Structures are given as C-alpha cells and as structure tokens.
Amino acid sequence: MKSGQKSVILFTICAFLFILHQYLQKIAGISLPLVDSYLDPLLCMPILLHLIVWERKLFHRRTEYTLSLSHIVGYILLVSILCEIVFPLWNEKMTADP
Questions:
Q1: Mind telling me which residue stretches traverse the membrane in this protein (predicted)?
Q2: Is the per-residue pLDDT at 98 higher than 80?
Q3: DSSP labels for 28-65?
C-alpha cells in the first residue's frame, strides 16, 4: 500500500470519527466526557495536515507533494500556540491546558 493511500485512509477515518462525534454530541445530545475532552484535539492534526497537503497539491500542481518534517513541526507548534495561548486569551470560554 502506497503512502498516499495510507494518508487518505487515515484522513477518512479521522474525518468520520470527528463527524460522528460532533453528531452524537451536538445533535443526539449524547455526552461522553472523556471522548468530548480529548477526541477532537487528537483528530485535529491528521485532518489539518491532510487538508494542507491537498491544498498544496492544488496550488503547486504537483501530485507528489509532501510536507517536510520541519513544516509538520511548524504547523503543530502554530496550532498549539493558537489553541493554548491565543484563543484562551481571546475567549474566556476556552481553557488553556498546561
């Protein structure tokens, strides 16, 4: 199995879990505290990184485009800073984790 196929499978599973969790939480009203607290942040980076690669493939018109390790680390740091520092300062409903 090629790396691109594994990436698509991982993205599909993560996106499905995310949508299922949002449906159960927001529409069906089912609350699973441990899942509600940790599933969305866990799924964030695989979904986000796949969408970034997809956008870059369209922008650069190269089907073999992949993110370098430095770009992956940079995106993880950016999302961490935004979610743990900037957003909690901006909105009192959000809580920063240590």
A1: 7-24, 30-53, 65-90
A2: no
A3: S----HHHHHHHHHHHHHHHHHHHHHHHHHHHHT-TT-
